[in-house]
Structures are given as C-alpha cells and as structure tokens.
Amino acid sequence: MVNVTMIVLLAVLMACGMGTAAAVEVGDVVGPVELLTLDGHPLVMDNYGERRGTVVLFMSGRWETTDAAMERINRVHVRFRLREVLFVGVCSNPEESGDELRTFCQRRGVIFPVYRDPVGDVAKVFKARFTPEAFVLDRDGTVVYHGAIDGLEKAVAGLASNRPIEVTSVPAKGTPIDKPGPKREIEDPYGSISFSSELIFEKIPWAAAHHCSTLTEAGNGDLVCVWYGGSYESADDQVLFLSRRKKGERIWSEPEVVVRNPGRPPGNAVVFRDGLDRIWIVWGRMESARPIRRGSGWGECRLMYRLSTDNGMTWSDDGVLHDELGWLPRNAPITLRSGELVLPLSGRAGGVRGSFLLKTSDHGTTWERSGVIPGASQPTVIERSDGSLFVMMRKRPRIMQSQSHDGGRTWSEPQRSDLNNPDAGIAMARLRNGHVVLVFNDSATGRTPLSIARSTDEGRTWETPLELESNPGEYSYPCVIQTSDGTIHVTYTYRRYAIKHVEFDEDWLTRFDRPN
Fold first, then answer.
1. What DSSP assignment string belongs to 80-118?
2. What number is the average pLDDT over the span 198-211?
C-alpha cells in the first residue's frame, strides 16, 4: 500500500508534467518515469544516457504468461547485461505487494531491478497492455522496439552492437495488464541450503586415538553418538565413549565412558533405537588372550548389547546377543516396512566369511540370521520400494553390492559397483523421500577424501560425489542418518584424534549456484 507521503510526492511529480506524458510509440522519446522500489521508496528513472539501452519489461508474478517467459527473459538479460543494456521490470498490479514480487523474482532467478507501478502511470506512459510486454529504449530514451518477448533478443542484439534494429515491433501477447490474477504459490527451484560441522570433542586426556563412530536420534530428539577410543586400536584401555547433543542445542556433552571391560575391551559398536523406543548399543567384545598387537583381535569378538529405556541416560547390564566369536557390527540396523528390524554384520557364518543380516520381529527377543554374501565385509543396507533389500559392502578397490528379493534368505552374486573403496567402512541411508545417500572414501588407496553421493533410483546409479573432507589424514568409518526434522547427519573419524559431526539438508547436496 502506498503511504500518504508517497502519494503526495507522486502528485507533485505529476503536477510537474512527469506523470502525464502522452503514450509513446516506436520512435517516441520517453522522459522520466516514477517508480516505487519493492520496499516502497519512490524513485525517478531518467538515466537512460548512462548505457546503450534500457529494456522496460512489464511483468507480474501472478500471471503464468510472465512466469512461462521468465527463463527466456533471463537468458536474454544475462547475454547482454555486460554490454551496457539494463533490464528494468515494472509491475503495474496494485494488489501485488513488494514482498510478493520479491519472492517471485528470487524464485525465478531475476537479477535485474524490478519496481512497482501501483497507480498505473508508467503503464499509461508506455501504453502497455500485456504482461509480459517489452519496450527497448536507446541511450536517448527513444523507443526502438515495442512488443512481445519473441522479438526482444533480436532487438537488444542490434542495439548492443550499434546496428540498425530490423525488428521494431512484434505484437505483444500475454495476460491483459488490467486483469490482475489471484495470489499464487511460487515454487522455489533453488531451495535453501543448510550446513554446519564441529568436532564432538577436541581431546580426551588419557585416550589418544578414536574411531568407528555411530549415531542415533533418541525418542526425545537428542542425538546420541558412541565410538571407541583408547591409547591405540585394540589397546587394553579401549572403551566406548558416549556424547549427547540435546534437542535444540548445538553443544555436545563431555564424552563419558559407557562401556569399559578391562581384559576384554569393546570394539566396533552401533547405537540405534528400536520399535519400543529403546536405545541399543551393540558391540563386539574383544575376547583374545592378551597381550595382542595393535589392530588385531577383531576375529575373536563376541556380540554384546546394552539397552536403555530413558533415551540413553542409563543402561542395562551387558547381555550376549550371539555367543559365536567373530561376528562384528559396523552399521546400524534398519526397520523394514513389515516392522522387522535387520542388523547388518560381518564375520564367519555357516562356514563362509562375508556379510549377513540378523533379523528380529519381536524387538530383539529372538534373532534369525540371513544368508551370507561371501567375499566382502561391513555391509550397509536399505529396503527398496519393491520390498527388496540392497546391500553395499566394503572391499578394495570398489564397493561391492548385492540384493535380495526374499528378505535376505538368498542374495544375488556380489558385483563391483563403480564407487571406489580403499578397504574402509561405508554407510548408507534411505531418506524419507526415497532418495539414498552413501558416505565413503572416494579412493582406491587411501582414507581421504571422505565423500557423500546421492542416488535418486535407490542405489542403481549415483550422482557425482561431494567431498566432506579432502585434506591429508584419515577421515573414515562414517555413520549417516536422517533425523525426524529431515536433517542429514554424518559422523566420522577425524584423523584418529577425534570424531567429527556434520549436518546438512538435502539441498546442500544438489544446489550449488543461485543467480547473482
């Protein structure tokens, strides 16, 4: 709405003869015209001589004819904006607010000035009748073209090249300027990216090395992260640490020891929430007789678990999930549409070393093992829309993959994917919209870079990966989840010094540029 001061100013300008000029045609000279910025400030445009040409474009965010033409208009503008041709948008619809116009322009990639003409005087000066409708003025303010967007590019090209303009008029077509349409929702193709990252901790005085993080969202919205740390991998003093980020906060709690077992230290762990809203920690307890060398003992782990019914504040006593040695977790389970929970594991089962799933339909009271996929380890699993299970697994030099159409009883012959793997952990998650994200080391030889790729066809093909880390050092063993608010969270080993957390929305994976 135009305030009293603006109306008075417009009246004064009109009294001076600036708002009552006769309607112009091709060959006529346009004098100063009064406009309002989108924030409601008056402005007089009369600086035509500062450039080769000015394109005055009558437009509206409410009319689909303008909307349909914006891509073409933007293309012409970008082509000539550095050749001293200025585009100026004018909206003569009094019902269209500055905020509404601003939203339209931002969501349609408009990067030229757009003004309001709520009284309609500028439309009368130009004798504009449609949206969109274009008028091309030379540096003297003379109209050299008037009409439709179809002839605009040729007219501007001639003006920018100081050539005679062959096309002087193409009849405008579109929506009548005096028939304002209703307000409508404008789709935003550019999205709004969100990204942040931080170390969960910087130093734990007595624990030098940290690895193999796992993350879940508690029922109260808190993030709970678990990892192992100690003097070195497989050390006698290795423990499981837990840190929490409370819902709505940005700071992680001081890491606390949640599992300590001198002589039989914990190794790889996964933390997850089940269908009863309990939080589990499942880990491999290293049963090897000590002393042992650094990095050994993984083949003699016993599968253990603890439960929490208060969002991970307190925990049950240790329980044995499976008594046979050598089964080891790496990636958290998923809940199938049937309500069953499947936990991916690797180790030796049925006389075969490889990857397999444990399935429970009674919230962990009983478990059933799937068939074994030979020759690869540390599986990560999703359920596809057709109910099949898709697994990707660690193996150098390429990530391996397999699928099952019978709930995991049998698996297809594992195949190499096109994605690199230096024999390091990977993590995959299906987002709520059906897209899939995979975090992995995009290298056949080293644990940098750490990258993330998206698939829109359930893992059959992958978009170009983005690098989360690319500096020297180890960035490995990721965990990826999507929380209830739609945010994607990744944790991973940061040079073995610490655990890093990164969060972002899906737009961050796909939106790289916006018009500017």
1. HTTTTEEEEEEE--TTS-HHHHHHHHHHTT--S-EEE-T
2. 98
